[in-house]
Amino acid sequence: MLERLLIATVVLAIVLVAIAAGRRWYAWRNARIEDRLRAEARAGASDTASDDEPAAPGGPRIVYFTTKTCVVCKAQQEPAIAAVREHLGDGLRIERHDAVEERALADRYGVLTVPTTAVYDAGGELVTVNRGFAPAAVLLSQLRGEVPSFEGGALMSSERLDERSA
């Protein structure tokens, strides 16, 4: 009985160490990608212009990665982006990219899942890269330079956009 308990404890410890190492690697990887994107933004390198909207200097923008089959993108992310665009007007640029068809660009942004959104402020500085659905209120806050945390539960309702923007 004691041997089984010891084996279970060792296995649990190994699993916890592996999880911690994986999380640390993921955080390191994301930080490295975001640092590179920030450096490219400062250097003025922007090859993310889509056919819908050519690259233009300055102004806030969202670089949005999706796929043809992404249900969350169509059902949640696109309406959230539309709500932000409606709220901010034509000053916001949306650059939509297919993560499968534009694999090299998706790799540069570290796209592991769709939707992925990269948010740049009015000065062209990268604010953050969201992996997974980002609600309209969160995107709006990020465009203003605030980086709300998804830890502990994010504001997931786009309906509360007006309350957050006041």
SSE blueprint and pairings:
Layout: H1 2-43, E1 61-66, H2 71-88, E2 93-98, H3 103-108, E3 116-120, E4 126-131, H4 136-143, H5 161-165
Parallel strand pairs: 1-2
Antiparallel strand pairs: 1-3, 3-4
Structure keywords:
166 residues; alpha+beta; Glutaredoxin; four-stranded mixed β-sheet; 5 helices; 48% helix; elongated
Your description of this structure?
With 166 residues, this protein is an alpha+beta fold. The protein has one domain: Glutaredoxin, CATH 3.40.30. 48% of the residues lie in helices and 14% in strands. It is built from five helices and four strands, in the order H-E-H-E-H-E-E-H-H. The protein has helices at 2-43, 71-88, 103-108, 136-143, 161-165, and strands at 61-66, 93-98, 116-120, 126-131. It has a four-stranded mixed β-sheet with strand order 2-1-3-4, with helices on both faces. Strand 1, helix 2 (71-88) and strand 2 (93-98) form a beta-alpha-beta unit. Helix 2 (71-88) packs across helix 4 (136-143). The protein is elongated and about 70 Å long.
What structural class should be given to the helix and strand makeup? Answer: alpha+beta
Strand order of the largest sheet: 2-1-3-4
How confident is the prediction overall: mean pLDDT?
83
What Rg is obtained from the alpha carbons, in whole angstroms?
19 Å
Biggest sheet architecture: 4 strands, mixed
Element pattern in H and E: HEHEHEEHH
User: What is the assigned CATH homologous superfamily?
Assistant: Glutaredoxin
| CATH class categorisation | Alpha Beta
Number of strands: 4
Q: Low-confidence stretches at least 5 residues in length (pLDDT < 50)?
A: 50-56, 151-159
Beta strand %: 5-15%
CA distance, first residue to last residue: 62 Å
What CATH calls the topology is Glutaredoxin
Shape: elongated
Q: How many structural domains are formed by the residues?
A: 1
Fraction of helical residues = 40-55%
Helix segment tally: 5
**CATH architecture annotation name:** 3-Layer(aba) Sandwich
